[in-house]
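ok trying this again, last paste got cut off
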Amino acid sequence: MTVLELSTIGGNGVNLVYSIRVKGTQLMTTKAAALTQFRYNWKVITKQHPKLKGDKVWKREEWSYFTDSLCKQGYITLKQYESWSNPF
């Protein structure tokens, strides 16, 4: 199994980095893995921009951008994207 590091620009213009497990040639991730990576990303973002730490709306939007990016890049299916509730 291989781990890929990917980056994207979030809705607030902050560079986000996340990891995806690769099994064979199929890229895949689980909600638990995505949530773990997102929480790490959020911690990095709030260290760089402390005013965002308590902003729940911003955090919810960033989760939406994050999962949208995963779906558009083929790391989760459309069904996963549509069925994962926002944990924030």
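PB: full thing came through this time. Strands lie at 2-9, 15-23, 26-28.
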